[in-house]
Amino acid sequence: MGSNPISSAIGDGHRTIRCPSSFLDDHGRAYGRAMSYPEPAYDGDGTASATLRPAGAEPDLVYPSGVRVHHLALGSQTRSEFGLYRWDFSAQRTGPDPHFHRTISESFFVLSGTVSLYDGRRWRDAHPGDYLFVPEGGIHGFRNESGAEASMLLLFAPGAPREEYFDRLAHLAQQPFDEGEREEFMRRHDTYWV
């Protein structure tokens, strides 16, 4: 009748719960609202519009520390829905201290090595396959303290123009900010240090 049953294991048995407008947590309790698909953004019969970035592509940005950043999907390419970056750490200790964003969520997925991720409470060593989601306002940080190379994916949603932010930070050694410029730059790029 317009809703799909969701089966959930409860106690020793199973029961079917009809839950048309919410999700179930691990204990069978309803939370949130069901997400529906957005209005169509394309009204044709299909098009060959995909792009492939080969694994061996040159990085878009290299920091003086040796960190290499690959712009996999820019907000300008995804109708501002998300931005996806591959962050390849050098063996040198690098990464930002705890901070938060007011307008974007951020996700981290470790591809190789060990990356220290701050989850708002403590630093945790994350390994290949580990994932951290940080909603808007969530305090977080990341760094490589392992002494070996590491790699991770960073996903921002919506797709804010983080490229300018990353690029400017890479050039700070040659052109440092004065305090007023730094504060305005961080505010413009939705970065608040704690």
Q: How would the blueprint of this fold be written?
A:
Elements: E1 5-10, E2 13-18, E3 23-24, E4 30-31, E5 61-62, E6 68-73, E7 83-89, E8 99-100, E9 105-112, E10 115-118, E11 123-126, E12 131-134, E13 141-143, E14 150-157, H1 162-170, H2 179-188, E15 192-193
Antiparallel strand pairs: 1-2, 3-4, 5-6, 6-7, 7-14, 8-15, 9-12, 9-14, 10-11, 10-13
Please characterize this protein's 3D structure.
It is a single chain. The protein is mainly beta. The chain has 2 domains: 1-34, no CATH class; 61-193, Sandwich (Jelly Rolls), CATH 2.60.120. It has helices at 162-170, 179-188, and strands at residues 5-10, 13-18, 23-24, 30-31, 61-62, 68-73, 83-89, 99-100, 105-112, 115-118, 123-126, 131-134, 141-143, 150-157, 192-193. A 6-stranded antiparallel sheet has the order 5-6-7-14-9-12, covered by helices on one side. Mean pLDDT is 87; it is low at 1-21.
Query: How many structural domains are formed by the residues?
Result: 2
Biggest sheet: strands, sense, closure?
6 strands, antiparallel
Strand share of the residues?
Answer: 25-35%
Helical proportion, percent range: under 10%
Strand order of the largest sheet: 5-6-7-14-9-12
Please state the second-level CATH architecture of the largest domain.
Answer: Sandwich
Tell me the radius of gyration: 20 Å
Order of helices and strands: EEEEEEEEEEEEEEHHE
Low-confidence stretches: 1-21
Count of helical regions: 2
